[in-house]
Every structure is written in structure tokens, then in C-alpha cells.
Amino acid sequence: MLKIARILIITICCILICVLGTVYSFIRFRNPSNVGIFARWFGRLHPLFGLKVEHRYPANVNQLGRCIYIGNHQNNYDMVTISYMVMPRTVSVGKKSLIWVPFFGILYWATGNIFLDRDNRSKAHNTMTELARRINEDNLSIWMFPEGTRSRGRGLLPFKTGAFHAAIAAGVPIVPVVCSTTHNKIDLNRWDNGKVICEMLEPIDVSGYTRDNVRELAEYCHDLMQKRINELDQEIAQTQCAENKQG
Asked: 3-class SS at 69?
């Protein structure tokens, strides 16, 4: 019964956010700060899932400037966890099929996000080139999930290199954003689904990399993010163990 009630409430809230967000975004059509505004609206829904979410930022977060944010992409719960971390003047890159998602697709387009045709490698490459141009000309930051798809419990999947090519071409740093593991930890029939930690790491300078060693950059970022995810998972497990002992 709890699960059904939650699904109904969450569905109504999501539709309202999409409808109101679309109206707002048509008033400020494709303004790059729209994305962060509504990402945080979705992020505020986390209590409906029985989650406590902690968001951690570096001390210099307001001085980061133009960059490419890369996050781990686990499942649909990302909408109420890591999405809250999207900063002002940041747009995301998503597959073009998102446009057909009821209510959400039109919001995704109207807020100013960028669609990627993953089935056409030539168009995908051109999109990365366009990203590099827009980052500097339009004073944008870009949010990407370099795994390219949801991991769904398979751990941090290998990274595609598009985000890293774009960062090198634009001459901007990579900023990793990680979220502790949520796979198989959320049961909508359970009141309390525990804690999730989302953390923005320090920027990574890409000036020492070129197209020839872009794979090294991708692997370095992958290893860094995997290590931090493991640490966050361990921190949560230790905290939960301590709380159980006290209880």
C-alpha cells in the first residue's frame, strides 16, 4: 500500500514539475540556467522515496567557471539524487529519444539541454565539436554521463571518450560528480531507505592531454570516481552499523 501511495504522489509531483517547468522554460526559452533549477526541483523529491541525501561540494564551487561535469549513471533514482548537483549555466547531453518521454521530453528540450544521436557516430562526433564551441562562446558548462547508459548494479561502467574530447577541445577542466550506490537499496514499501551521498570532486586539469592520449584521461577519471564511490559506500555502511548498535 505504501508503494502504491508513493508512486501516485511521485507521479503527480513529476508531472507538475514538468508542466510548470515547461511553461517557465518557454518564458525563459532554453536559458542555460533552467536546467539546474528544475534538476533541483526533482532533487527535492528524495524524501518521497524514503531517502536522506547529502550533497557535498568543494570549497571553490562558485569559482569553477566553465567545465564539463561527469557523473555516474546508476538508475532512474538519479533524478532525485545526483541531479540536484547540476550547477547554474549547465546543460546536459542526453539521447535524442528523451524527447518522446511524456511530459519530461518537452521540458528537457525547452530547458536547453542538448540531444545526442548515439546511433550515428558521425553526428555524435559533430555534437562533441559543437559542445566545445558552445562552452566558450555561450559561457556554458556541460553535464554528461560518460558511461553512456545506466549501470543498473553493474558497477561503474567503462567510459566513452566524448566528454573528454570535448573538454580537451574547449580547454576546460573535468569535474567528477559521484553518487553512492543506490542499486537494490531502495524499497518503496519501506519507510526508511537510508542515506545517499552525492559529492562533487575537485576539477581535473586537462591541459596535459591531447586527442592521442584522451583514453588515459578517461581511465584516470574512471579510477578516481570508482575509488570515491567505494569510499562513500563504506562510509554509509559504517554509519548504518553504528546506528544499529545504538538502536
From this structure: strand
